[in-house]
Amino acid sequence: METDSLIADDFPPFIRTYKDGRVERLLSSSFVPASEDPAAGRGVATRDVVIHRGTGVSARLFLALRAAAKGKRLPLIIYFHGGAFCTESAFCRTYHRYATSLAASSGALVVSVEYRLAPEHPIPAAYEDAWDALRWASVAPFSSDPWIAAHAAPRRTFLAGDSAGANIVYRTAVRAAREGAGSGVLDVLGLIMVQPYFWGPGWQPSDSETVCRDGVAAVLPAVLVDKFWPFVTRSQAGNDDHRLNPPREEMASLRCRRVLVAVAEKDTLVHRGRAIVAPMRDNPWIAGNVTLVESEDEDHGFHLYSRCGRPARDS
After folding, report:
1. How far is Cα 202 from Cα 8, in angstroms, rounded to an integer?
2. Which residue ranges of the chain lie beneath pLDDT 50?
3. DSSP 199-239
4. Is 267 an active-site residue?
5. Residue 11: phi, psi to the nearest 5?
6. Rounded to two decimals, what is the model's pTM?
7. What is the bridge-based pairing of β-strands 152-162 and 212-213?
8. 181: left (phi > 0), else alpha (psi -120 to 50), else beta?
9. By three-state DSSP, how is residue 170 classified?
10. What is the pLDDT of residue 108?
11. Which of 121, 163, 187, 295 does the annotation list as catalytic?
């Protein structure tokens, strides 16, 4: 009881904060060091870089050496990890393994971004870090990073992420369309949004859907999702915030050419994730190049922890 009285915010399984200012991140995996030895990771070499010395934002690069050895420019995937804006890391075991797999299977150069986390750095800090990462990766072919300079194809840049990272992907693409599209520097070819973290009034599950399915609690109960956005914005925004609940006209402003949205059937966020597809298909820039993939009988984040999920449906 004494410990309970010291808790300020409690969001299991993600994070707990205390009235004395301490932050306890409940969902986290151990740190994995980078290695340029391809034998350490499926033929993928990794190295860490600093993107912005002022904020400390950094990234881990994943280079599939077999693809690089062919001498052709590789697609560039800028990846943003999930974790409800407040936990996990590009350098943790979970996302190191995932980005390694992504680089190995796609033959792309992956930049996995270590953005700042709430509550110490509330939204919009993560968005600013993502913008800095896109600018850094887009400019790097003409300047600083040797891997990007030698191997990346800047005009084949994709933004990718899961959960909160998918929300960051979308917001970065909106800003790129507004500030950089057509410049040849900040052009984004495509978006990959896996179980995207969008929400808003009216998106709670219906009465026929429960927070406990087949005796297993939902990963993201609606009651938790309702409280998260005010927490990560330090009470500066509610669930009607356009950054969490984007309007149709904003989706029409995107200037990328391809979009992949992947959702999970049992995810509390699934309805909101499906709903972003139709407005994007109405966008003349993207038109018929929007793909929705739904994994049956799976919940939020299953792709990170399961080697093989249920069949997926394309639409």
Report:
1. 27
2. 1, 207-208, 307-311
3. --TT-SPPTTS-SEETTEE-SS-HHHHHHHHHHHTTTS--T
4. yes
5. -130, 70
6. 0.93
7. unpaired
8. beta
9. helix
10. 96
11. 163
Q: What is the pLDDT of residue 216?
A: 73
- Tallying the residues shown for the chain, one arrives at 315
Coil, helix or strand at residue 148: helix
Question: Among this protein's residues, is 300 annotated catalytic?
Answer: yes
Catalytic (active site) residue 129: no
* Residue 1, pLDDT score: 44
- Phi, psi (deg, nearest 5) at residue 247: -75, 160
What average pLDDT is seen over the chain? Answer: 89
**Placement of tokens 């995207």 in the chain:** 196
Q: Which of 81, 96, 151, 300 is catalytic?
A: 300
| DSSP codes of every residue in 238-289 | -TT-TTTS--HHHHTT---SEEEEEEETT-TTHHHHHHTHHHHHT-TTTTT-
User: Which among 125, 157, 141 is positioned nearest to 54, based on CA atoms?
Assistant: 125
Confidence (pLDDT) at 253 = 86
Place of tokens 């881990």: 60
| pLDDT at residue 306, as a whole number | 58
How many other C-beta atoms are found inside a 10 Å radius of the C-beta of residue 30? Answer: 9
Active-site hit among 129, 162, 267, 299: 267
Residue 154's pLDDT is 83
159: enclosing H helix or E strand:
strand 152-162
295 Cβ contact list (under 8 Å, min separation 6): 262, 263, 264, 265, 302, 303, 309, 310, 311, 312
Residue (of 166, 159, 135, 179) closest to 246 by Cα position: 166
Containing H/E element for 111? strand 109-114
User: Which two tokens mark 177?
Assistant: 């369309």
DSSP 89: -
Domains along the chain with CATH numbers: 2-314 (3.40.50.1820)
What digits encode the pLDDT tens for the residues 24-74?
999 888 999 999 988 877 899 999 999 999 999 999 999 999 999 999 999
